[in-house]
Design a protein that fits this description.
Layout: H1 5-22, H2 33-37, H3 43-64, H4 71-90, H5 97-117, H6 129-146, H7 150-157, H8 164-188, H9 194-203, H10 206-218, H11 223-246
Helix pairs in contact: 1-3, 1-10, 3-8, 3-9, 3-10, 4-6, 4-8, 5-11, 6-7
Protein backbone atom coordinates (compact mmCIF):
# COMPACT_ATOMS: atom_id res chain seq x y z
CA UNK A 1 0.00 0.00 0.00
CA UNK A 2 1.16 3.54 -0.72
CA UNK A 3 2.32 5.12 2.56
CA UNK A 4 3.61 8.51 1.36
CA UNK A 5 1.60 11.18 3.25
CA UNK A 6 1.84 13.52 0.27
CA UNK A 7 -0.12 11.02 -1.81
CA UNK A 8 -3.04 11.10 0.62
CA UNK A 9 -3.00 14.92 0.70
CA UNK A 10 -3.95 14.70 -2.99
CA UNK A 11 -5.91 11.43 -2.96
CA UNK A 12 -8.39 12.14 -0.16
CA UNK A 13 -9.86 15.31 -1.72
CA UNK A 14 -9.68 13.67 -5.17
CA UNK A 15 -11.81 10.73 -4.03
CA UNK A 16 -14.25 12.98 -2.15
CA UNK A 17 -14.71 15.30 -5.13
CA UNK A 18 -15.25 12.33 -7.41
CA UNK A 19 -17.80 10.84 -5.03
CA UNK A 20 -19.68 14.13 -4.66
CA UNK A 21 -19.93 14.27 -8.45
CA UNK A 22 -21.20 10.69 -8.45
CA UNK A 23 -23.92 11.83 -6.07
CA UNK A 24 -25.31 14.07 -8.79
CA UNK A 25 -23.68 17.41 -8.00
CA UNK A 26 -21.21 19.16 -10.28
CA UNK A 27 -21.72 17.30 -13.54
CA UNK A 28 -18.41 15.82 -14.68
CA UNK A 29 -16.41 17.24 -11.79
CA UNK A 30 -15.36 13.69 -10.92
CA UNK A 31 -12.93 13.62 -13.82
CA UNK A 32 -10.62 15.78 -11.68
CA UNK A 33 -9.89 12.67 -9.59
CA UNK A 34 -7.10 11.23 -11.75
CA UNK A 35 -5.43 14.60 -12.52
CA UNK A 36 -5.34 15.46 -8.80
CA UNK A 37 -3.82 12.11 -7.87
CA UNK A 38 -1.46 12.34 -10.85
CA UNK A 39 0.20 15.31 -9.16
CA UNK A 40 2.02 12.80 -6.95
CA UNK A 41 1.88 9.45 -8.82
CA UNK A 42 1.77 8.30 -12.45
CA UNK A 43 -1.61 8.86 -14.16
CA UNK A 44 -1.89 5.17 -15.07
CA UNK A 45 -1.45 4.14 -11.43
CA UNK A 46 -3.92 6.80 -10.30
CA UNK A 47 -6.51 5.42 -12.73
CA UNK A 48 -5.93 1.86 -11.48
CA UNK A 49 -6.33 2.89 -7.83
CA UNK A 50 -9.47 4.86 -8.55
CA UNK A 51 -11.36 2.27 -10.61
CA UNK A 52 -12.39 -0.07 -7.72
CA UNK A 53 -13.44 3.00 -5.71
CA UNK A 54 -15.49 4.24 -8.66
CA UNK A 55 -17.29 0.90 -8.80
CA UNK A 56 -18.20 1.25 -5.11
CA UNK A 57 -19.43 4.81 -5.72
CA UNK A 58 -21.48 3.53 -8.65
CA UNK A 59 -23.24 1.01 -6.41
CA UNK A 60 -24.25 3.74 -3.95
CA UNK A 61 -25.25 6.09 -6.77
CA UNK A 62 -27.40 3.47 -8.47
CA UNK A 63 -29.26 2.90 -5.22
CA UNK A 64 -29.87 6.64 -4.73
CA UNK A 65 -30.97 7.26 -8.34
CA UNK A 66 -32.78 3.96 -8.96
CA UNK A 67 -35.67 3.81 -11.41
CA UNK A 68 -34.59 7.00 -13.22
CA UNK A 69 -32.52 7.80 -16.28
CA UNK A 70 -33.11 8.42 -19.98
CA UNK A 71 -33.49 4.94 -21.49
CA UNK A 72 -33.28 6.13 -25.11
CA UNK A 73 -29.95 7.85 -24.49
CA UNK A 74 -28.53 4.91 -22.56
CA UNK A 75 -29.38 2.40 -25.30
CA UNK A 76 -27.48 4.61 -27.74
CA UNK A 77 -24.54 5.58 -25.54
CA UNK A 78 -23.64 2.30 -23.86
CA UNK A 79 -22.99 0.07 -26.92
CA UNK A 80 -20.87 2.85 -28.42
CA UNK A 81 -18.98 3.26 -25.13
CA UNK A 82 -18.16 -0.46 -25.10
CA UNK A 83 -16.57 -0.02 -28.53
CA UNK A 84 -14.63 2.99 -27.23
CA UNK A 85 -13.36 0.99 -24.25
CA UNK A 86 -12.21 -1.81 -26.56
CA UNK A 87 -10.32 0.72 -28.69
CA UNK A 88 -8.80 2.23 -25.56
CA UNK A 89 -7.58 -1.17 -24.39
CA UNK A 90 -6.15 -2.07 -27.80
CA UNK A 91 -4.32 1.24 -28.19
CA UNK A 92 -3.34 1.68 -24.52
CA UNK A 93 0.36 1.35 -25.26
CA UNK A 94 0.32 3.98 -28.02
CA UNK A 95 -1.35 6.91 -26.24
CA UNK A 96 0.13 8.77 -23.32
CA UNK A 97 -2.03 10.27 -20.59
CA UNK A 98 -1.16 13.72 -21.94
CA UNK A 99 -2.60 12.83 -25.36
CA UNK A 100 -5.90 11.97 -23.67
CA UNK A 101 -5.80 15.11 -21.52
CA UNK A 102 -5.38 17.32 -24.60
CA UNK A 103 -8.30 15.64 -26.36
CA UNK A 104 -10.67 15.80 -23.40
CA UNK A 105 -9.58 19.26 -22.28
CA UNK A 106 -10.19 20.73 -25.72
CA UNK A 107 -13.66 19.18 -25.91
CA UNK A 108 -14.56 20.51 -22.46
CA UNK A 109 -13.47 24.08 -23.21
CA UNK A 110 -15.05 24.31 -26.67
CA UNK A 111 -18.32 22.88 -25.43
CA UNK A 112 -18.49 25.23 -22.43
CA UNK A 113 -17.70 28.33 -24.48
CA UNK A 114 -20.37 27.34 -26.99
CA UNK A 115 -22.93 27.11 -24.17
CA UNK A 116 -22.09 30.57 -22.83
CA UNK A 117 -22.20 32.34 -26.20
CA UNK A 118 -25.11 30.64 -27.92
CA UNK A 119 -28.58 32.31 -27.84
CA UNK A 120 -30.24 31.98 -24.46
CA UNK A 121 -33.50 30.68 -25.91
CA UNK A 122 -31.96 27.73 -27.73
CA UNK A 123 -34.40 24.84 -27.67
CA UNK A 124 -33.36 21.41 -26.39
CA UNK A 125 -31.74 19.25 -29.05
CA UNK A 126 -33.58 16.07 -30.04
CA UNK A 127 -32.04 12.71 -29.18
CA UNK A 128 -29.84 11.37 -31.98
CA UNK A 129 -28.44 7.88 -32.54
CA UNK A 130 -25.59 9.29 -34.62
CA UNK A 131 -24.51 11.97 -32.12
CA UNK A 132 -25.07 9.64 -29.19
CA UNK A 133 -22.93 6.92 -30.75
CA UNK A 134 -20.08 9.32 -31.50
CA UNK A 135 -19.99 10.90 -28.04
CA UNK A 136 -20.59 7.56 -26.33
CA UNK A 137 -17.63 5.95 -28.11
CA UNK A 138 -15.42 8.92 -27.27
CA UNK A 139 -16.53 8.79 -23.62
CA UNK A 140 -15.66 5.10 -23.45
CA UNK A 141 -12.26 5.69 -25.02
CA UNK A 142 -11.26 8.61 -22.78
CA UNK A 143 -12.72 6.95 -19.70
CA UNK A 144 -10.56 3.88 -20.19
CA UNK A 145 -7.28 5.77 -19.94
CA UNK A 146 -7.87 8.44 -17.27
CA UNK A 147 -11.54 8.11 -16.22
CA UNK A 148 -12.26 11.27 -18.21
CA UNK A 149 -15.48 10.35 -19.95
CA UNK A 150 -17.42 13.24 -18.39
CA UNK A 151 -16.95 15.92 -21.08
CA UNK A 152 -17.88 13.67 -24.04
CA UNK A 153 -20.93 12.41 -22.18
CA UNK A 154 -21.91 15.96 -21.22
CA UNK A 155 -21.44 17.02 -24.84
CA UNK A 156 -24.36 14.76 -25.71
CA UNK A 157 -26.56 14.94 -22.61
CA UNK A 158 -26.43 18.64 -21.67
CA UNK A 159 -28.01 19.94 -24.93
CA UNK A 160 -30.98 17.62 -24.34
CA UNK A 161 -31.81 19.80 -21.30
CA UNK A 162 -33.10 16.89 -19.26
CA UNK A 163 -34.45 17.53 -15.76
CA UNK A 164 -31.43 17.55 -13.49
CA UNK A 165 -32.52 14.35 -11.70
CA UNK A 166 -32.79 12.49 -15.03
CA UNK A 167 -29.47 13.96 -16.18
CA UNK A 168 -27.72 12.81 -13.00
CA UNK A 169 -29.35 9.38 -13.08
CA UNK A 170 -28.45 8.83 -16.73
CA UNK A 171 -24.84 9.82 -16.06
CA UNK A 172 -24.59 7.53 -13.04
CA UNK A 173 -26.06 4.53 -14.87
CA UNK A 174 -23.78 5.16 -17.86
CA UNK A 175 -20.60 5.29 -15.80
CA UNK A 176 -21.61 2.38 -13.58
CA UNK A 177 -21.90 0.25 -16.70
CA UNK A 178 -18.66 1.32 -18.35
CA UNK A 179 -16.66 1.15 -15.10
CA UNK A 180 -17.82 -2.44 -14.69
CA UNK A 181 -16.78 -3.17 -18.28
CA UNK A 182 -13.33 -1.65 -17.65
CA UNK A 183 -12.50 -4.03 -14.80
CA UNK A 184 -11.60 -6.96 -17.07
CA UNK A 185 -9.26 -5.10 -19.45
CA UNK A 186 -7.61 -3.33 -16.50
CA UNK A 187 -6.92 -6.73 -14.95
CA UNK A 188 -5.61 -8.16 -18.22
CA UNK A 189 -3.05 -5.36 -18.69
CA UNK A 190 -1.79 -5.74 -15.11
CA UNK A 191 -3.19 -2.57 -13.53
CA UNK A 192 -4.51 -4.29 -10.39
CA UNK A 193 -1.31 -4.85 -8.42
CA UNK A 194 -1.44 -5.58 -4.69
CA UNK A 195 -0.14 -2.07 -3.90
CA UNK A 196 -2.85 -0.46 -6.02
CA UNK A 197 -5.69 -2.59 -4.64
CA UNK A 198 -4.65 -2.14 -1.00
CA UNK A 199 -4.47 1.61 -1.53
CA UNK A 200 -7.94 1.52 -3.08
CA UNK A 201 -9.22 -0.31 -0.02
CA UNK A 202 -7.75 2.33 2.30
CA UNK A 203 -9.55 5.11 0.41
CA UNK A 204 -12.84 3.25 -0.12
CA UNK A 205 -14.50 4.56 3.06
CA UNK A 206 -14.69 7.99 1.41
CA UNK A 207 -16.83 6.70 -1.47
CA UNK A 208 -20.27 6.42 0.21
CA UNK A 209 -19.65 9.58 2.27
CA UNK A 210 -18.98 11.67 -0.82
CA UNK A 211 -21.90 10.22 -2.81
CA UNK A 212 -24.34 11.04 -0.02
CA UNK A 213 -22.96 14.59 0.23
CA UNK A 214 -23.40 14.99 -3.53
CA UNK A 215 -26.98 13.73 -3.35
CA UNK A 216 -27.80 16.21 -0.58
CA UNK A 217 -26.32 19.09 -2.59
CA UNK A 218 -28.20 17.93 -5.68
CA UNK A 219 -31.52 18.45 -3.88
CA UNK A 220 -30.61 22.02 -2.92
CA UNK A 221 -30.01 23.56 -6.34
CA UNK A 222 -32.51 24.35 -9.10
CA UNK A 223 -32.19 23.36 -12.77
CA UNK A 224 -30.82 26.73 -13.95
CA UNK A 225 -28.03 26.80 -11.40
CA UNK A 226 -27.35 23.10 -11.83
CA UNK A 227 -26.52 23.63 -15.51
CA UNK A 228 -24.58 26.83 -14.87
CA UNK A 229 -22.44 25.07 -12.29
CA UNK A 230 -22.00 22.03 -14.55
CA UNK A 231 -20.77 24.08 -17.50
CA UNK A 232 -18.49 26.21 -15.32
CA UNK A 233 -16.92 23.09 -13.84
CA UNK A 234 -16.62 21.55 -17.29
CA UNK A 235 -14.66 24.61 -18.44
CA UNK A 236 -12.36 24.55 -15.41
CA UNK A 237 -11.70 20.86 -15.92
CA UNK A 238 -10.74 21.53 -19.52
CA UNK A 239 -8.23 24.19 -18.45
CA UNK A 240 -6.81 21.89 -15.80
CA UNK A 241 -6.34 19.02 -18.24
CA UNK A 242 -4.63 21.21 -20.85
CA UNK A 243 -2.39 22.71 -18.17
CA UNK A 244 -1.37 19.26 -16.97
CA UNK A 245 -0.71 18.12 -20.54
CA UNK A 246 1.54 21.01 -21.53
CA UNK A 247 3.18 21.94 -18.24
Amino acid sequence: MITDPLFYVAAVPAVLITAISKGGFGGGLGMLGVPMMALVIAPQQAAAILLPILCLMDAVGLWKFRARGDLHSLTTLLPAAAVGIALGALTFQYFSADHIRILVGTIAIVFSVNYWFKPADTAPKPRSRVRGSFWGALAGFTSFSVHAGGPPLSAYLLPLKLPRWDFAATSIIFFAAINAIKVLPYALIGQFTWDNLSTSAALAILAPIGVLIGTALHHRINDMWFYRVSYAMLFMMGLKLLYDAFF
